[in-house]
Specification:
Low-confidence stretches: none
Largest sheet: 2 strands, antiparallel
Number of helices: 7
Structural class: mainly alpha
Distance between the termini: 32 Å
Shape: globular
Protein name: DUF2200 domain-containing protein
CATH superfamily: uncharacterized protein sp1917 domain
CATH topology: Helicase, Ruva Protein, domain 3
Number of strands: 2
Strand content: under 5%
Order of helices and strands: HHHHHEEHH
Mean pLDDT: 92
Number of domains: 1
Helix content: 55-70%
Radius of gyration: 13 Å
Length: 120
Amino acid sequence: MTKPKIYTMCFAKVYPLYIAKAERKGRTKAEVDTIICWLTGYSPEELHKQLNKQIDVETFFAEAPELHPSRSLIKGVICGVRVEDIEEETMKNIRYMDKLIDELAKGKTMEKILIADEIV
């Protein structure tokens, strides 16, 4: 079975897409970075080191210092699939990030996005 294409995409090419999505809705790169760091455990400096290394998305998540323990509370639909129904761990983590960025772009406050019991 071949890996999904997103796994082999360079994270440094996906990252600007997250920023563009947020900025189109009046949000900031700093907010995107906060979400990514919250989810993955990377510090802002470590995040930018990973971007400079040009690693793929799968490696980005595999090397994450500590995936946030509350990420499993993230619920909802992304790309037509319920996040909580995804079984493969890497894909689930990718979709968690997608969902958080979507919530940011929809105008939710950072406090509501990153408070585990309010993640929707």
